[in-house]
Amino acid sequence: FKGGDTCEYLLSSGRFLGEKVWQPHSCMMHKYKNSEAKNCLIDKHVVFIGDSRIRQLFYSFIKLINPQVKEEGIKHGNIPFEDKSASIKVDFLWYPEVNGSMRQRIKSWTEGSVAKPHIIVVGAATWSIKIHNGSNEALAQYKTNITSIAPLLEKLAISSDVYWVLQDPVYEDMLSESRKMITNEKIDAYNEAAVRILNSSSRNSKAKVKVFSVSKLIAQETIMKSADGLHLPESSRDTNAMILMNVYCNKIMKPIDGSCCQPQPPLTLIQKIAFCFFTLSIIGYLIISLIHRNNYRKNKSCTDLESGEEKKPAISTPNVSTLEMLLHCFCKLGLIMTYFYLCDRADLFMKENKFYTHSSFFIPIIYILVLGVFYTENTKETKVLNREQTDEWKGWMQLVILIYHISGASTFLPVYMHIRVLVAAYLFQTGYGHFSYFWIKGDFGVYRVCQVLFRLNFLVVVLCIVMDRPYQFYYFVPLVTVWFMIIYATLAVWPQIVQKKANGNCLWHFGLLLKLICLLTCIYFLSYSQGAFEKIFSFWPLSKCFELNGNVYEWWFRWKLDRYVVFHGMLFAFIYLALQKHQMISEGKGDPLFSNRVSNVLLFISIVSFLTYSIWASSCKNKTECNELHPSVSVVQILAFILIRNIPGYIRSVYSSFFAWFGKISLELFICQYHIWLAADTKGILVLIPGYPMFNVLVSTFIFVCVAHEISQITNDLAQIVVPKDNSTLLKRLLCIAGFFSGLHFFSAMQDQSRH
């Protein structure tokens, strides 16, 4: 850790990821769109002063505002640019040498009431080397001129952003005869003089002229692609312009994936309260632990000196009280949340942009698949989608999704489409699992509902408080929560139809099918009526949960993307349980699910369907069009996988304990990755160990998995305390929870008012 000045890192250091993606040291660079650049620079005046290299940077900069601009200005003259819609002025002033003329122009901005530019970008040297044939006298004069200009730049830097651009290296072999005197040795001497003079003239670090030295590093990698050996290729100058935009705009626009030059956000009122609560929990737990330890010491067995026999204590060690367990859980949770905050809200750890390569995605996939196969064990039961098998399914899917996120594979459309199927498969299991429970058990009690809702939402609610994020930000949890409530409402509403009732009269099966048809009709209507959907979820208090950036569009998009798959899961569970009840399938150990002939036909159809979907997904050209088809066709690959996994008896009788272990904590893994494995709310990668990417991933992954496992244990422990089986006690706890959320809403309203 070298300090938190990410602006300094952005301007001075970094490396290329691939050919064109620049990665600043320690922080993430945002790729600004034209609309964002205009919003940032509205009513601003930007000036570029220098030679042809600065003119190149000027053109790349204004193309971020208006991509239609063509480089048609006078080569050796001033070039104005204005965007009237946003009142932005950007000027290029032709001053190829650091001399009296440049000094006079800069001085004019420091005098009287003349309007000063908001951003000033200055740089020149190659013309001085060329005109004076690289003489030492020219270098001495250059030093003198910069020395006279430096105080003026410092004065401007008090109210404006001033950048001195160091000279990029040249590709000497490609230089024309008239430029042969411009050598890298001379350029280094001029740069060294500029840095030494500008740094020594600084009196106030807050009013310091910023040295733009990163372009030199970029040029070292790309100058050999130059057309003339002197000017940078277009991709390199575009990178320099984007860096300049990040330096100025990140503190104004505050993009999530632009951590460079962003100040640490201040603690909110709710975060301060959470900090106090966790601190008190830790102190309380330590006090209780010390008291118990002292009591244990007093009552521990002592040796009788005369007989040499050990006497047992008269008082046995007391059982752990509910209060102590609560404090113990909150103590651990407080330490874990501190780590979350330090990783993704403080400036303590570095963050880097993602960069996708096929090897970064597929090699880890192959590695975990080999590990998964290595840890193969026999299942306790051989039913279709038994507990071990569903845990295994969740586990390998979660690991693939994690690799997909850290490798940035969303940019590769075939991978994106297959990952969409994995997310759909999670929701399919939601429909299958909850339907099966309610159908078989017939338990529609409040206890069951509260247990599920608590386990699903506990971690997300804590993260919303600690990380200052809306509930909808962790979109998957609201999704499974809402679908659980829809499943519950569908089956619990009168008439309640369960397996026990349906066994007595087959007509009840048709009644359940009617319920499912009604559910499908509602889903279909809402998916094609965005207005009705948004009205439902725009009512308070639903709006507080499902709004993101002031509207519920993101929630509608997420819900619509997998709108049918939960229904498919419920329908599959109904058909499977009906077949099982009528003994139309064989689930014995090693037995095929159906007769050999039927099993072989279904297996063949499943394999063909699975491959057909993969071929279609791999041939996708447009993400929007493929997303439109996805809700209707994703079930094909899901059902194909289930049949391939369960029809052969020998495959159904084994499972991977490696994948199943991860499956048991899949929800915690999915949520925790946002802040302690990835960074900047999943937009980047957390860097605990800079300079060693593979070692960093190993260390951060180990911590991440341990934390997810620990949070899973904490959630299970707290669920037993917060959601007791006794109805009267449960009602009291629900009133307490309602009070907690009322208080949270009150403090949130106070927070919003103070922000406005």
TrEMBL record:
Family: Belongs to the PC-esterase family. CASD1 subfamily.
Keywords: Acyltransferase, Glycoprotein, Golgi apparatus, Membrane, Transferase, Transmembrane, Transmembrane helix
Membrane topology: Multi-pass membrane protein
Catalytic activity of the protein: a ganglioside GD3 (d18:1(4E)) + acetyl-CoA = a ganglioside Ac-O-7-GD3(d18:1(4E)) + CoA; CMP-N-acetyl-beta-neuraminate + acetyl-CoA = CMP-N-acetyl-9-O-acetyl-beta-neuraminate + CoA; CMP-N-acetyl-beta-neuraminate + acetyl-CoA = CMP-N-acetyl-7-O-acetyl-beta-neuraminate + CoA
GO molecular function annotations of the record: N-acetylneuraminate 9-O-acetyltransferase activity
Stated name of the protein: N-acetylneuraminate (7)9-O-acetyltransferase
Annotated organism of origin: Pardalotus punctatus
Chief location of this protein within or outside the cell: Golgi
Domain NXPE C-terminal: 22-72
InterPro entries linked: Cas1_AcylTrans_dom, NXPE4_C, SGNH_hydro_sf
E.C. no: 2.3.1.45
Cellular localisation: Golgi apparatus membrane
Gene Ontology cellular component list: Golgi membrane
Residue span(s) of domain Cas1p 10 TM acyl transferase: 253-734
Top-level taxonomic group: Eukaryota
Regions that span the bilayer: 269-291, 325-343, 355-375, 396-417, 452-468, 474-494, 506-526, 561-579, 600-617, 659-679, 685-709, 730-750
GO biological process: carbohydrate metabolic process
Alphabetized Pfam families for the sequence: Cas1_AcylT (PF07779), NXPE4_C (PF24536)
